[in-house]
Batch of 3 targets.
Target 1
Amino acid sequence: MNRELDIILSNIENAVEKKEYDTALSLIEENVAILFSSRNVKPVIILLGNIPEDRFVTPLQKLIRGWVSFMCGDGQGVIKVLEELEPYVLTSPVENSVYCALKAVSIFMDNQEEALSSAKLSVEVMEKDANSFYMANARLTYGQLLSSVGDHRKAAHEFFSAYHIFKKHKSYFPAVTSLVNYGIKKHALGEIADIVTLFRNELAASSKFDDDGVFELLKLPLGIAFFEMNRQNLAVEYLESVKPLMYQLDFVHMYGVLEMYLAYAYGISGLYSRAYSLIDELAGRLSRLGFENVNTLCAALRAHINLLEGVPVSDSDKQLLEADYLAGGKHTPIGTLLILARLKLNSDMESFSMNDLIAWQESPATVKNVPFAQTAAILTAEYYYQLREMAYCREYLEKAVAIYTNYRLSARFLIEKVECLNLLKEINRDLYHLVNSRWDVEAIPVSLTQREHEILSLMALGLSSKQISNQLCIGAGTIKWHVNNIFNKLHVKRRSQAVAQARKLGLLR
């Protein structure tokens, strides 16, 4: 394939140098599948850029120019091509399919419903040529848009279909791209066992033809699957091994995903320094590429590792996360909501309302991401545990356990250091023993926040809640919240018991 690609590129380059632009464009049209299946399409983009725009005459030539504009992030270039073409001039299914796909990606940010309809049409018009390279590209594009709106089931179907078509054309890089996306969607659906079986088989089979080594990228969803199954050694092994290749191939749309799960695996394994180094590396890489919300993402990852390690979360990270929440409210991304909930339960984020996380669980979005739903259920169970509303606590914990039972996802119980997990002894003894083998809940040292320590000290002086509220200029409801947290951490029910237990543990002099 590489030799064939080199010959085609050389022929196109010669034609462009001789200003035989019609010949060059004909070669491009005839060899689209080979040219755009390369792991490095930059030479193709450069060659197309050396052809004057007025020499792109046929609808397909113009559409290829538009697709290259899209790949370069040139939205105006895409719009210009679409404006040059009226739908009635498109005479072939291929032209209609590429036109609809380009239209879909160009309007997605402004009109998701119309964009999805257009992307779906780009697939439907290719029905009579179901195994065409253009059909594979249409399915990949449709899958990416479905993924963006959280329709993981349909997206997975489109990615899997695209994979098989690309593979038939020996277009291995887009084939692997499609299959990795499929694996990420199956993860969101909780179907971890399917990922392990399929991806191990595909990795083994690819050794016969994968000269470029691109199938090694399949280790990314495999590593994530092993993390969820609490096979952390394999998770670290697979994710660490695929990271250099992901960067080498500029697999940009997975930046942040791999690092997040690798950081989680490090955290569960107690490899905290490696987790922090990884997060710093990610911050630098994404900042250089101009990614949005880099600081918030890295603040969330650092805060999570801080909580696992049992060290204070920095004020700067808390402020970043709080600002994101105050701007987005209940529409804050679920990943951020989860870390905010952890901080709330640790008495580090007073402004966060657990009602927003509870509302997310009641929304249709919940069923579309099973691992996040499991985490949300555990954190909500802990929220009610701290309030001593045990019926609600048990209800949500049982939801989390049901996900474990149905999908065998166990890691989420290990990345949450919460006391409600003691109730697993009554709900699922296997999980209870698993958690206890990792975290000795009873042996966890009592750690009070600075505010809790202030309130406890004033309680020891005999001040009432109202007096503490006045002295610290904090609302009565917030004082009650902190007092409940102090009681929970010290395993007591009354103020006198809290003071006595604190003195016994050396928390008060």
Target 2
Amino acid sequence: MPSGFLKTKKNKLQMLNSNSTNTEDLRNYQIIDANLDRAREGLRVLEDWARFGLGKRRYVERIKNFRQILGKNHLEIYKQSRNHIEDISKGLTHQEQINRKTAEQIISSNSGRVQEALRVIEEFSRPHNHELSKIASEIRYEIYTIEVELLSLSKRKKSEKILVENDLYIITDQKDNLLEIIEEILIAGVRIIQHRFKTGTDKDHLKEAIQIKNLCKRYNSLFIVNDRLDIALASDADGIHLGQDDLDLKTARKLLGYSKIVGISANNAIDISNALKEGCDYIGIGPVFETTTKKNKKPIGIENIKTLTKDLNIPWFAIGGIKSNNISNLKSNGFKKVALVSELMNSEDPQEDAIMILKKLSNEN
């Protein structure tokens, strides 16, 4: 909260000449009146998105407080001015207003609206109402930060929705035609891709990560980087997946920020409990069966995984040795989400095979 907001407002009209009726004063008051309305309207849009779109009470309270402060400083002399001079641009709209279709566009446009309106108030109130000018400046700088945070939270909410709504998670393997395989899988309807890096230089890895990220973005899918936090950041991945021997989750979250997804591999109750306490977004649990990808890992088995996950309330994906021919068995045991590597990476027709697996997971024939 800006430092001057809670100070006692003494002699609010001291610097105002309420008897002034000259045209310049009326124009200034009219400008302030219009922009106070504009700022409060924009703040209400942000407040309602924080409340209903994100469910973030902390932001609702902050933004509501800004609206109330501006309302208390919307003096009668400003309101009365709006009827004195005709506004020749009343009702003017712009094509860009029609083009706003996403929550992010609405957040950005209304944040900009608030910031611009507050800047106008700051300038035109400075000569006669220094207190309002200062308030406008302080709120304006707060909104710069809130805009970024609301956009980050909106992005995270989209990622969380994809995790919840999609049951097939694909992990890449090194292939000469990897981008072609990934696009085929995305066309089939897969919405979560995790990329594992094998041989090659970091320069090559980053180039490949950016290419996959762009593909995933085109198909409205999550791009998760395995292990490499630096490449996840540099490629603007949607998140990172960490093993038990990788960077700890708290450090990863601190560096990535809260707009990104962090997944954890776990195969016992302690690791799962720690992952939940540290705020992971999903868990990969396995291996379920023997797998060539993790030859040194002993399979946990279906029954053990059922025990480990019976009270789990975040998305989790069974992984390890899962193929098209054992998905029905997993489904009958209550497994809803699976992660695959070789089944699609080695497929002669990855698009068709992905479609068939998605149908099995959704119980379609």
Target 3
Amino acid sequence: MTNTDTAAGRSGVELLPKLNPLQTAWYAMRSAVFYAGYALWTIWFGLTTPLFVKPLGYAACVRYINWWNRGVIVWLRWVCGVRYRVKGMENIPPRPYVVVAKHQSQWETFFLQLPFAPVCTILKKELVEMPVFGWGLATVKPIAIDRSAKREALKQILDDGCLRLAEGISVLIFPEGTRTEIGKVGRYARGGADLAVKGSVPLLPVAHNAGECWPGKKFLKYPGVVTVVIGEPLHGDGTDSRTLMNRAQEWIEAEVQRVSQYR
């Protein structure tokens, strides 16, 4: 598959529900209410975490920030009707490990912090440089990379990632690098597999259909069920990182198609 592949040959927009004007207005109002609450919730945690929780240490910051993550997920369910279910929790191995997940929306950036905590997320450095939001985010040891400097970014992922793994902290990476429309497949970078091989830890693939309820770079939120599937851990055992990532990609993309609400 390539980054232009779509389910049934349609674009991500065409895969979303068709709304009449009244439905569009209703969903827009609910989405606006969600974002208002989300903004206030984020301001609270962005300010209080570095001021009052950071002195208590990393573990306290993780627990506190995860209340922010839970709050976003719960608020989205109450206001916009976005529910979720998780399959494969039994596949989570003992820490540490490297999680590679499909990236369709912001939803998974909040939710995936919860089942794998403590987990360090690899993200673009612009996020931790944001006022308020970035202040809280920086307290949970993310690996903030410059995506324009690919070679340096990969070195940072391997160096800092191995340090986190040595501390018993798992690492979460979205190998497509940026959010992709539903039905599309981005280019899977193999940095996560490189880290798993170098750190001698399992690679844990995660699939979901979150973009069908919270489309990337779109304002409207759609009610529905996000299905998250955690796959069996993949072990290098002498396998090169490219082959390992190809195995993860094939599993993830097949599962994304299987759990889609719009197949």
